[in-house]
Amino acid sequence: MLEKEKQERKQGDIILGMMFVIFILVCNLGNYILADQEKSQEENRSLAQKPELDKQSMIRGSFMDQYEDYLSDQFIGRDAFREFNIFVKMVGGSRMESDVFLGEGGQLLKNITKPDQKMLDANIEAINSLAQEVVGKNAEDKEGVENQAAQIQVVENQAAEEQENDDQEVENQETRRVFMLLVPDCTEIYQELLPEFATVESEKEWFDTIENRISDDIIWIDGLSIMSKYKKEKLYYRTDHHWTTLGAYHMFCECKNILGVSDKTDESGDQEEASEEQAVENAKKSENEKQYEVYPITTDFNGMLSGNSGFCPNEREEIDVYIPKEGAVSVIVNYVDQQKRKTSLYDRYMLEEKDKYSVFLGGNSSLIDIRTTSTSEKKILLIKDSFANCFIPFLTEYYSEIVVVDPRYYSGTIHDVMDTYPVDDILFLYSGATFLNDNNIKGFIMD
Amino acid sequence: MVFSSFTFIFTFLPITLILYYISPRRVKNMILLISSLVFYAWGELIYIGLMVLSILFNYFCGKDIYLKMCQNENDSSGHLSVDGNQKKQKNMGVRISFVIAIIVNLLILGFFKYYGFLIDTINTVAKTKIEYRQLGLPVGISFYTFQAISYLIDVYRGEVTAQKNIINFALYIAMFPQLIAGPIVRYIDIEIQLKWREESLQKFGEGTRYFIVGLGKKVILANSMGKIFESVSQNFSSGIKMSIMMMWVGAIAYTLQIYFDFSGYSDMAVGLGKMFGFDLKKNFDYPYISKSVTEFWRRWHISLGTWFREYVYIPLGGNRVSAKKHIRNLLIVWMLTGLWHGAQWNFVIWGLYYGVLLIFEKYYLTKYLTRIPKILQHLYTMLMIVIGWVFFFSESAGSALKYLGMMVGIGSKGFLHSQDCFVIVSNWGLWLAGIICCTSIGSGILNRNGYEGNGKWFTDLAYMMLFVITISWLITDSFNPFLYFRF
Amino acid sequence: MRKEMSDVTKRIVTGLCKYVLLFCIIAYIYWVYSYSSTKDVPFEKTKEALLNSMNDESIQNMMDVSSRGLKRYYGFNAAEYDGVMMYIGNNGLSAEEILLIKVNDEKQMNELEAAIKQRMKTRIKDFENYAPDQAQLLREAELIIKGKYIFLAVSENADKYKRVFLKLI
Questions:
Q1: How close C12 comes to chain A (CA, Å)?
Q2: What's the number of domains chain B is made of?
Q3: Rounded distance, CA A178 to CA B89, Å?
Q4: Which residue of C has its CA nearest to B132?
C-alpha cells in the first residue's frame, strides 16, 4: 500500500477507535440514567431486574447469567433495536421469527408443530376417564345416539336424544354430558396465506385422531369444519393467535344445538320438545332470533404474535364485543382464588396493557365462577385455555352458572371443582395449539 | 465470560480498558492479568484455582529447567560449540525435570478431559460397568495447557530464556483475549511484547476493526447458521426422515457456523490484543477458498497446526524420514489433533480422516489435482471439508455414517421438500453473506469506500453500522452458543 | 534491592516450589472431584433414600403434596421435570418443607432457584411475627443444587437430610 494510503488508513483507525469508545460510553451512560423498566409492553413479559449478589448464586454462576439478562433486558433503546433487527432480517428474506410466519397481507400465522405423542396420549386418557366417570352410567344407552350428535345438521337426533335424556333421569341425578371442542388455529384454516414454500403440520389430522380416540361418552364438536365454513370472514386476528369475537360468534351459533341451548324461554330450562318438527322450527328460530349489537371495544389492538415475532409492530386491530339486543343478562363474576368479584365480563383496565385480548374476563385465571340472571337452570363447567374467554359471553344467556377452570393455573383437581360446583355439562374448549402442547390437563384430571 | 455478550462489551471491556490506560507501565501487566482472572472466574469459578496452580507450576518448572540448563552449560564451559551441539547434551537432571513437567501438564489435561472417555471406552470394549462421577471440563484447559507446554519445550530447546517475572508469565498463559478459545500463542511470538509493547490510538482503532468484524461474524452469521443446523440436527436425532437437500443444508450450515464462530472469536482475540498493544498472529486465512485439503490445513486453525508441527511432527522426524515413517508421523499427529478437539471417538475419526486425506494428497493426488480446472479443485476441497464436518458434529461414528448416507439418498425421504425451500429461501440473505464472507470479498465490501480523503469516514461508519446491527442481533436473539467451548 | 540469591539456592527453591505446587494441584483435583463432581442418580432412588432418612415422627408431621404442591406454592408444572417430591408441614404454623426436584434440562434450574429463594424470603417475613422459631428454620434452611438436582430442606433436621442428599449425588 502506498505511503499516503497507509497514513489515511491509520487516521481511519483512530477515528473508528474513538467512535467505538464513544458509542459504548454513551450506551452505558444512557443505561445508567434511564430507570429500569419492569415490563416490556412490546414483548409482553417482565424484564429482568438487577440481580442480587449472594454466595450461592455467585458460585453456581447464576448471578452471572442474571446479570447478562439484566443488561440485555434493560438496554437503552431495546425496542428500537428489536424493530431494526426484524427489519434487517426481513430484508434478508426472513418470513419466520420466533415460530411465527409473516403471511400474505400481513396475516401472522403461528407455526404448527408435531405434538408430543406421550403428552397427547395422557391428555386423551385423562379426558376419557373423566367422561367415564361422569357419563359412564348411561354409556350403553347413549352410545347409539352420541355418535351422531356431532353432526350439527342432524337436529332430529338431538331432539331424540333429549327425549331420552328426559326418559332416563336416573335416580335424582340429571345426566351429565361432556363436550369437546377444539378450535383450529388460524394457520390451519388459512394455510394458503403462508409464505412461499412454508409448510406446517396438519392440525386436521391430529384433530381426526383425537376424535377417533376419545370415548364415545364425549360429544365431539367439529370446530374445524365450522371455522372453515366461515373462512371468508375475519375469524382470527392478524396480529394475535386468538380468534375474533366474530369467529367465536359463528362457532357458538353452530354449537347451540349440540350444547342443547335455545332461545325458547321455558320454566324448567330443559328443552321439552313436543315433536321433531317443533324442534327443527325452534332451532331455526334460534339462529335467526338472537341478534347482537356489535361494539368495538378498542381499535388499538396489536396482538401477541406481533409482539413475540416483531413483525407488523404498527398494525392496529379492532376487538369487538357482542351485546345481545334483547334478553341480556347480568352477571356476577367471582374470581375464586383472588377473592374478587366483578359485575362485568369485560375488564376495561386490560385495554391499557398490550395484550388487549385480556379485556375478556381479565385474561387468564385459575378458577372463575360466573352466575347469571338467566332463567335457564343449566350449569356448565368449562375447562379451557384463553380461547374460551371471548366465547363465554355468548353462553351467559343460556346458563345460570358457568364455572371456568384453566388447568395451567389451577392447582387443585377437577374433583375439587366438581364437588364445590355441581354442574350439568362439561365442555372442554381449547385451541388446537394449546391442547396439542399442554401437559397440565392430565394432572388436573387424574391426580 | 464470552466476548459476544453485554457483560463483556459494555461492562468488562470498558472497565478493563480504563484501568489499563490510566495505570503506569509497570502496573499494566498486573491489571491485565487480574482482569483476565476475573474474566475466567466469571465464567467458571471453580476452576480458576486449577489455572492459577497450573500457571504457578509451569512457571517454576520453566525456571527449574532453565536454571539446570544454565548450570549444565557452566559445568561444561569452555566447550562452547559453534554448531549448537551443546544443546543436545543435556544431562539427566534437565531431561527428568522437563519430562516430569510435560507429563504433569498432559496428565492434568488428560484427567479432566479424557478420563470419562477412557472409562466409557473400557466399558464398551471390556463390557464392564465401571461407574464414574462426572466432572465438568475446565474452560480453555486445552488452550492454556498447550501454551504452557509450548513454553516449556521452547525453554528446553534453548530457544527462549525462562520468564523471570511471574506476572508476565501468568499473563502469557491467562491473557483474556486468547484464554478461552485461542489462538494458541507460542511463547516465542509474544516474549518481547510482554515487556515491550506500544499501545496507540491507531493500534486501538485497528483492533476495533478486528473486533467488530469478529463480533459480527459470530453473532450474525455463526449464530444464525447455528439455528438452522440445530433444527436439522434435532430432527435427525429424533429419527425424522428428511430430504437429501435438507441434509446438505444442515451440513453446509454447520460448515459455515463453525468457521464464523471460531474465526470470529479469533478475530476478536486479535482485535482485543491490539487494543492492549499486543500483536497476535491470525488464526484463519480464508480456509474455505482452499484448492486442496493440504492448503485447507494451512489456513484453518493455524496456531494449532503450527503447535502440532513444531512440537510433535518435527520431533518425530517430520517428512525427513522414510515414507513409511512419514506416514506414521502424519497419522499420529492427526489422531492427536482429532483427540485434542474432544473426548469422543468421532473426533479421532475426524482427525484420522484428514490424516489419510493429506497423505493421499501428498503422495498421490496433488499432481493430478493441479491439472484439473480450478473450480473442480475448489469443489473437491469443499466436499472433503463438509464430509469432515459431518464426522465432527456427529455424536458417534455410526450416526456420522448415517448422516452421510442420508446426504446421498440412503435413508432419506425425497430430494427436496417445500419446507426445505423455505429454509433456503427465507434465509437467502444469510446464505449470501455467509458465502461472501468466506472470501476476502466480504472485507472488500466493508472497506469499499477506501481510506482516501473522506472515504475513511464512510468506511468507519460502515464498521459502526455493522456493530450496531450486531448489537441489535444480540438484543433480539437469545440463541448464543459457542462451539469451541468444549476445548 | 533484593539480596541476590546464589545459583544453588535459586535452583533448590525453584525445585522445591515445583513439587509443592504439584502437591497442591493433586490436592486441588481431589477436592474438586469429591466436591463438585456429580453422579447421575435416578430420581426414585434419591427420593427413597431421603424418605428413609426421615424418621417416623417427622413424616407424620408432614404431608406429601408432591403432585400439586409445586404448582400451588411455586406456580410450576410438575410434569415439566424429571421428578418432584414435596413434603410440607401439615399445619399452617409450620414452615417445614422438604423439596426435591430433578430437572430434565439445566436451563430449568435457574428459574427454580430464583423462585425458591423468592418464596423463602416472603415466608420469612410472614413467619417473623407469629412464629419466629419457624422463621429461624427458614433462615437456616439448606438449599443445594447439584448436577440435575435441586434440594431444599426447611426443618430441624435439615442438616441431616442435606448430608444424606449429598452423599447420594
A1: 38
A2: 2
A3: 93
A4: C39
Closest C-alpha to B243, from B407, B402, B426, B400 = B407
For residue A427, which of A218, A278, A243 has the smallest C-alpha distance?
Answer: A218
CA dihedral of A260, A265, A269, A275, whole degrees rounded to 10 = -60
Greater confidence (B220 vs C32) lies with: B220
Burial of A24 (0-12, 13-18, 19+ CB in 10 A): middle
Regarding whether C130 and C72 lie in a shared domain, the answer is yes
Question: Which cell numbers in the block locate residue C94?
Answer: 409450620
Residues of chain A with Cβ-Cβ distance to B479 below 8 Å are none
- Which helix or strand (DSSP H or E) is residue A318 part of? strand A317-324
Asked if C110 lies within 8 A of A56 by C-beta distance, the reply is no
From residue B427, give the alpha-carbon distance in Å to each of A88, A93, A102, A187, C34: 12, 5, 14, 21, 48
Q: Is B326 a catalytic residue?
A: no
Domain-embedded: residue B143: yes
Q: Which three cell numbers stand for residue A200?
A: 406446517
Residue after which a domain boundary falls, among B157, B180, B197: B197
The pLDDT of residue C34 is above 90: no
Determine, for residues C72 and A443 on separate chains, whether the beta-carbon distance falls below 8 Å. Answer: no
Model pLDDT for residues A40-91, shown as the tens digit of each residue: 777 777 788 888 887 777 887 888 888 998 999 899 889 899 999 999 999 9
The whole domain housing C48 covers 43-168
Residue B149 gets the label, from left (phi > 0), alpha (psi -120 to 50) or beta, of alpha
Q: Which chains touch B (3 or more CB pairs under 8 A)?
A: A, C
Same domain, C65 and C125: yes
Chain mean position to CA C98: 11
Q: B209-230: string of b/e by CB count within 10 Å (b at 16+)?
A: bbbbbbbbbbbbbbbbbbbbbb
Q: Which domain range does residue B65 map to?
A: 6-78+86-197
- Can you give the length of chain A in residues? 447
Minimum-distance CB partner of B71 among C7, C28, C36: C7
- Per the CB < 8 A criterion, the answer to whether B132 and B37 are in contact is no
CA distance B342 to A265: 76
**Given a cut of 80, is residue C91 above it in pLDDT?**
no
The total number of residues shown for chain B amounts to 487
Asked if the Cβ–Cβ distance from C113 to A60 is below 8 Å, we say yes
Nearest chain A alpha carbon to B461: A16
Q: Are residues C27 and C51 in the same domain?
A: no
Rounded distance between C-alpha atoms, residue B259 and residue B286, angstroms: 9
Which phi-psi region, left, alpha or beta, contains residue C100 (left: φ > 0; alpha: ψ -120 to 50)?
beta
Whether residues B429 and A93 touch (CB distance < 8 A) is answered with yes
Residues B116 and B227 in one domain: no
pLDDT-derived band at A276 (thresholds 50, 70, 90) equals low
Determine which of A403-412, B3-12, C48-57 has the lowest per-residue pLDDT on average.
C48-57
Chain A interface, mutation test: which of C38, C73, C74, C110, most A Cβ atoms within 10 Å?
C110
Phi, psi dihedral angles at B214 (to 5 degrees): -60, -45
- Same domain for B179 and B288: no
Angle at A310 between CA A99 and CA B220, to 5 degrees: 80
Computed on alpha carbons and rounded to an integer, the radius of gyration of chain C in Å comes to: 23
Interface check C121 vs A, CB under 8 A: no
Contacts of residue C147 in chain B, CB cutoff 8 Å?
A: 134
Q: B487 lies in a domain?
A: no
ipTM of the shown complex: 0.90
Q: For cell 507501565, what's the residue?
A: B25
Is there a single domain that holds both residue B178 and residue B252? no
- B173 and B303 belong to one structural domain: no
Please tell me the distance from the alpha carbon of residue A203 to that of residue A209, in angstroms, as a whole number: 10
A221's enclosing H/E stretch is strand A218-221
With bands split at pLDDT 50, 70 and 90, how would you rate the model's confidence at B382?
A: very high
